[in-house]
Design a protein that fits this description.
single chain; alpha+beta; MetI-like fold; 2 domains; four-stranded antiparallel sheet; 4 strands; 58% helix
């Protein structure tokens, strides 16, 4: 008779390596939760204009540095009510000369869903005007407060996620393509190609990354439109980070190059492109995915740092790094702490990607239990 352990062993042996990796990944609850968080963040970026109550550049000059508004769920008699906000009145503190706000409770502005707002293009194509929520005309709903120009911080964080999350993603894609191609070429062809590429990678990784990013970003002409600057930042970030991936791929190709199935393919006359795409690349794919997943948070921090230092994307585009410029002084953090909220989003997504990368790395390990 076959025992339970033998049955489990047979079921494991019937699974493909991909199924086994997926099984190991699902056992890592932290990695699965991080994958959900990452997915939610990217959904937030896709639907950012719809989720934003206001246009990200709409200015409320009479409500500069307004604190986050409360949503009230009970009326003045303590009865449950539809969510509403009160009007804000700006006042000047004569002792500190700081702007303060107080609620005027004689007028209520009820929260409404799918309200008309400033026009925008969903996915840059479909013209739309509806937004997820808003309040009655004449009122305001600043759930994250406003900045120095009176712009809604929640709307700017949502729109800024489109840049802060896509620049690392596109940059990682370019890095993976460059690193994979050059890594395979270095490991498979060897000799002078391998020697030249490895010496170049050693020179590239010997430079500190942040100064190189700053140098590349500063070289982008200030007269370029914001869209071109965006692409320039992507190129600057991706051209520096491919060296580590190329070395990983080179090592895997060197290990697979002398395997029997590769030698057999060469013996029957298979071409170079077929050997690379059918035998060498699939064996390195799991390691490429792991390196790519772990490199995204680094590029998120890179883009945020460049934008924070003023050499990243330029207005009218915005990003989380640009938004953090308003919180770089001690006075701002003391009197307007809500301006530092973009940092929380950066921390959460970086941690989520790191945990996700760790989970993918463990799942890709064939010797993991």
């Amino acid at each position: 008779m076959i025992g339970l352990e033998d049955t489990a062993t047979l079921e494991t042996e019937r699974r493909t390596p991909r199924q086994l990796a997926w099984r190991r990944f699902r056992k890592n609850r932290l990695a699965v939760a991080s994958a959900v968080v990452v997915a939610l963040f990217y959904l937030m970026a896709v639907f950012a204009p719809f989720l934003s109550p206001y246009h990200h550049d709409e200015k409320f000059t009479k409500l500069r540095f307004a604190p986050p508004q409360r949503l009230h769920f009970f009326d003045e008699d303590g009865r449950l009510s539809r969510p509403f906000t009160y009007a804000l009145k700006q006042e000047l503190d004569l002792e500190t000369f700081a702007l303060t706000y107080r609620e005027i409770d004689d007028t209520k502005y009820y929260l409404r869903f799918f309200v008309p707002g400033a026009p925008y293009r969903f996915l840059g194509i479909i013209p739309m005007e509806r937004r997820l929520f808003g309040v009655d005309e004449g009122g305001s709903v600043f759930l994250f407060g406003t900045d120095t120009l009176g712009r809604d911080l929640l709307s700017r964080i949502l729109i800024g996620s489109q840049v802060s999350l896509t620049v690392p993603l596109v940059g990682t894609l370019v890095t993976v393509v460059i690193g994979t191609i050059l890594g395979i070429a270095s490991g498979y062809f060897g000799r002078m190609i391998d020697h030249a590429l490895q010496r170049f990678i050693e020179v590239l990784i010997s430079f500190p990354r942040v100064p190189l990013w700053l140098a590349f970003s500063a070289a982008i002409p200030a007269t370029w439109p914001s869209g071109w600057v965006y692409m320039g930042i992507v190129v600057a970030i991706s051209l520096i980070g491919w060296g580590g991936l190329a070395r990983v791929v080179r090592g895997k190709v060197l290990a697979y190059r002398n395997e029997e199935y590769v030698l057999a393919a060469e013996g029957v006359g298979a071409g170079t492109s077929r050997i690379i795409t059918k035998h060498l690349l699939p064996g390195s794919l799991s390691h490429i995915i792991v390196v790519a997943t772990l490199s995204v948070p680094e590029l998120i921090l890179a883009e945020s740092s460049l934008s924070f230092l003023g050499v990243g994307v330029t207005p009218p585009m915005t990003s989380w790094g640009i938004l953090l410029q308003g919180a770089q002084s001690v006075q701002a953090l003391l009197h307007q702490p809500w301006l530092g909220l973009p940092a929380i989003f950066i921390i959460v997504i970086v941690l989520a990607f790191n945990f996700l990368g760790d989970g993918v790395r463990d799942a890709a390990d064939p010797f993991a239990t």
